[in-house]
């Protein structure tokens, strides 16, 4: 599409703010509406980012003529239904990870995207972090082949708090949210389909109703393997660390930074258009709309990840 892209943001919490900061760096993008569960929060964020409209009603925003696309940084349980509603209203959509919290819902989103022909992108941010981009480029050029990916995703979340340590209205999930990052990343970086997947989990929290510890093992069609450890019981340090064991070197990825196996920092300044993975991700969304093409991490491209998650959930509940 030509001209300025007009974007609405739904979800004015910690990750929504990251998107607003990223969008501010992209030319020909205007944020025209902020949606939040609390009107006071929507108005506060709208005022801070000079956005002219704030509301609690996403349906109202989807009817607006000054909205071409929507970014959904809302609770996991709303992602699929809101993405479908946005596309049926004629809006392109980027939905934060995860696409859905069930296989049926994930399939339905992809089906609606195919029917409408609109851009539907999922926030699988690891595909866009410069550290992982560097690895991907080396694998694609034939300089590296992934043998094993080890990932540790650790947080301390024994109550419903977000990344800003503020109360959440919903419950996060190790499998459907945090494991989705690594399951998709392993498939993307190895270039292999996942043919074997196993998982075990620790006790379910009596109040939150979710497992607080989990371990996942994957094997790709070409023989690469992945081991993922996840915990909401970990009392620091927090976040996710990735160890890429390749045929030609070992690399440690820490969000937007990358180190050799000997802890030597790698220069990533020429890898992408920004050192901020969220900005790279949002630029891909904007460019895909402008160029009329399927984006990296489209709903269709990441769908196999959700088949694996669904299979693991079935095995864990069996």
Structural notes for this entry:
With 318 residues, the chain is of the alpha/beta class. The protein folds into two domains: 5-123 and 277-296, Rossmann fold (3-Layer(aba) Sandwich), CATH 3.40.50; 126-273 and 305-317, Dihydrodipicolinate Reductase, domain 2. Helices cover 35% and strands 25% of the residues. The strands form two sheets. The chain has a seven-stranded mixed sheet. Strands 3-2-1-4-5-6 form a six-stranded parallel sheet, sandwiched between helices. The mean pLDDT is 95.
Summarize the structure.
The protein has 318 residues and is an alpha/beta fold.
Largest sheet data: 7 strands, mixed
Give the CA-CA distance, first to last residue: 48 Å
The CATH class of the largest domain turns out to be Alpha Beta
CATH superfamily of the largest domain: Dihydrodipicolinate Reductase, domain 2
As residue ranges, the low-confidence spans are none
List the SSEs and their pairings.
Blueprint: E1 5-10, H1 14-23, E2 29-35, H2 39-48, E3 54-55, H3 58-62, E4 69-72, H4 79-88, E5 92-96, H5 103-116, E6 120-123, H6 130-141, E7 146-154, H7 174-190, E8 194-201, E9 213-220, E10 225-231, E11 239-246, E12 249-254, E13 257-260, H8 277-291, H9 299-317
Parallel strand pairs: 1-2, 1-4, 2-3, 4-5, 5-6, 7-10
Antiparallel strand pairs: 7-11, 8-9, 9-10, 11-12, 12-13
Helix pairs in contact: 1-8, 4-5, 5-9, 7-9
């Amino acid at each position: 599409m030509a001209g300025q892209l007009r974007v609405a943001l739904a979800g004015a919490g910690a990750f929504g703010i990251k998107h607003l900061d990223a969008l501010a760096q992209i030319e020909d993008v205007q944020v025209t509406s902020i949606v939040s569960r609390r009107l006071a929060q929507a108005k506060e964020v709208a005022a801070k980012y000079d956005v002219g409209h704030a509301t609690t009603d996403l349906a109202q925003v989807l009817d607006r003529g000054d909205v071409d696309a929507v970014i959904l940084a809302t609770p996991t349980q709303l992602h699929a239904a809101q993405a479908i509603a946005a596309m049926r209203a004629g809006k392109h959509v980027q939905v934060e990870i995860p696409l859905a919290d069930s296989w049926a819902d994930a399939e339905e989103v992809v089906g609606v995207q195919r029917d409408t022909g609109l851009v539907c992108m999922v926030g699988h941010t690891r595909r866009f972090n410069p550290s992982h981009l560097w690895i991907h480029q080396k694998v694609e050029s034939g300089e590296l082949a992934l043998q094993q990916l080890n990932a540790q995703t650790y947080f301390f979340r024994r109550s419903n708090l977000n990344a800003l340590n503020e109360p959440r209205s919903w419950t996060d999930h190790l499998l459907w949210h945090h494991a989705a990052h690594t399951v998709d990343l392993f498939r993307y970086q190895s270039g292999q389909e996942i043919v074997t997947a196993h998982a075990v989990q620790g006790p379910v929290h009596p109040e939150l109703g979710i497992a607080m510890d989990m371990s996942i093992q994957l094997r790709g069609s070409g023989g690469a393997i992945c081991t993922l450890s996840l915990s909401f019981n970990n009392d620091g340090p927090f976040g996710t660390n990735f160890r890429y064991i390749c045929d030609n070197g070992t690399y440690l990825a820490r969000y937007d930074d990358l180190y050799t196996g000997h802890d030597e920092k790698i220069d990533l300044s020429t890898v992408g258009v920004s050192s901020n993975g969220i900005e790279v991700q949002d630029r891909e969304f904007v460019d895909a709309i402008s160029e009329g093409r399927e984006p990296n991490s489209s709903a269709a491209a990441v769908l196999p990840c959700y088949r694996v998650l669904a299979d693991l959930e079935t095995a864990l509940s069996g």
